């Protein structure tokens, strides 16, 4: 992804130097590279900036096409992130401006306008310092980890993803079983859960109360596919594991943050 970020910065410099055609070529390459690497953040930012750039150049059809592509990168859940909401609103506002006075684009305009109107801020509750609230929160925390371990045991991918992105410590040792979540998933042979945990930072070298690593658990339970996964991760790292949708969302947040106001077309 580093090459994509470098090309986005390169395009920013080209735009500041009024080298618009060169910037278009650079951003089109970012689109290609982002698709190949399944980097939704790079793809969204490239299409958004291409839309802005084509609009500046008077190429409205190309601009609309790119804004459509940028819109297509967004999932509804992404809009909970302020940076993505801001970038998305900019895309939809640009689509409205380009299509408002064209009768043939009425449907396009209406869709974009509805999306802008649908954006509502959710009020956040202030944290409480009340003692009972703190104790209750701690109890819920332990219950959450119990539920997380059960989800790993039952191969409940959706639940595991949700818990991971709540920020749970993936290397937390269950005080009863003395296992980590990775031990649990390896013992039961849940390969998808194992890869998900590894990708998000689970440490396969942690030993349980019996001195066993996650790989040892897989060997003892005769889960050969899990052993193969752990061996490959040890040799190659986790880059070969495809990212989950929540990871794509987080990458998009980072990319939007890095590229915020980076391509000034003034």
From TrEMBL:
The keyword Repeat applies. One of its GO terms (biological process) is protein K6-linked ubiquitination. One of its GO terms (molecular function) is ubiquitin-protein transferase activity. InterPro entries: Ankyrin_rpt (IPR002110), Ankyrin_rpt-contain_sf (IPR036770), TPR-like_helical_dom_sf (IPR011990). The keyword Repeat applies. Residues 109-131 are annotated as: Disordered. ANK repeats lie at residues 177-209. SUPFAM superfamilies: Ankyrin repeat. Keywords: ANK repeat, Repeat. This is Uncharacterized protein. It comes from Blastocystis hominis.
């Amino acid at each position: 992804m580093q090459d994509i970020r470098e090309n986005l910065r390169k395009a920013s410099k080209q735009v500041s130097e009024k080298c618009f055609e060169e910037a278009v070529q650079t951003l089109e390459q970012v689109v290609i590279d982002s698709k190949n690497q399944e980097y939704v953040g790079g793809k969204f930012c490239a299409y958004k900036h291409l839309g802005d750039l084509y609009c500046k150049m008077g190429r409205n059809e190309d601009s609309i096409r790119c804004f459509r592509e940028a819109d297509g990168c967004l999932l509804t859940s992404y809009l909970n992130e302020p940076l993505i909401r801001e970038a998305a609103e900019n895309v939809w506002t640009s689509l409205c401006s380009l299509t408002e006075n064209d009768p043939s684009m009425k449907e396009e305009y209406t869709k974009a306008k509805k999306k802008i109107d649908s954006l509502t801020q959710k009020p956040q509750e202030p944290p409480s310092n009340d003692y009972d609230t703190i104790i209750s929160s701690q109890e819920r925390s332990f219950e959450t980890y119990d539920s997380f371990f059960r989800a790993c045991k039952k191969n409940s991918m959706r639940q595991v993803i949700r818990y991971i992105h709540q920020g749970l410590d993936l290397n937390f040792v269950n005080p009863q079983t003395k296992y980590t979540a990775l031990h649990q998933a390896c013992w039961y042979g849940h390969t998808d859960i194992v890869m998900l945990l590894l990708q998000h930072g689970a440490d396969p070298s942690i030993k349980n109360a019996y001195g066993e690593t996650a790989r040892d658990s897989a060997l003892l339970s005769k889960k050969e596919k899990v052993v193969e996964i752990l061996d490959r991760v040890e040799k190659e790292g986790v880059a070969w594991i495809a990212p989950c949708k929540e990871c794509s969302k987080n990458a998009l947040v980072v990319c939007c943050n890095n590229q915020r106001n980076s391509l000034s077309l003034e």
